Amino acid sequence: MEAWPASVPFAAEDDSVKGTPFRAPLATEFEGGNQRRRRSTTKNIATLEFAISMSNAQFGTFKIWVRDTLVDGTLPFTMQIWTGEAYAARTCSFAGRDPYQFGPDGFGRQLVTLTLDVEDY
Fold first, then answer.
1. Residue 22 confidence (pLDDT)
2. Are 92 and 77 contacting, i.e. CB atoms less than 8 angstroms apart?
């Protein structure tokens, strides 16, 4: 499994981390009005959204890594993720249709917003 590029920062911008702690359970309706709820997966997968500020050069490395190494963001990877107490290595994959969004963050910088599925969060 590929690892986050060493030359690209992984630390989230202050106050940018938000997410859901696990996937919503599946529910089955019964004729009597009851509902049976169960986990939707055997893994504990959280979905996190956060922003990382990168220099233009770091962003160039990141774009090539996502496009070529992760095959347009379709493969999982390992990354240091903020757990609320410390950073820890976790298996991640891009969530949703868009692997990331980006925009200017001052002169020579990009603000990259990621939405990731994170295992064992």
1. 78
2. yes
pLDDT at 11 over 80: yes
The yes or no reply on domain 2-119 and CATH 2.40.30 is: yes
The per-residue pLDDT for 121 is: 87
Give the whole-angstrom CA distance, residue 65 versus residue 14.
25
User: What is the C-alpha R_g of the chain?
Assistant: 17
Q: Which two tokens stand for residue 115?
A: 């939405």
pLDDT at 93: 96
d(CA 36, CA 38): 7
Instruction: Show me where the domains of the chain are located.
Output: 2-119
- To which residue do tokens 């009851």 refer? 34
Q: 11: helix, coil or strand? A: coil
Q: How many CB atoms lie within 10 A of CB 1?
A: 8
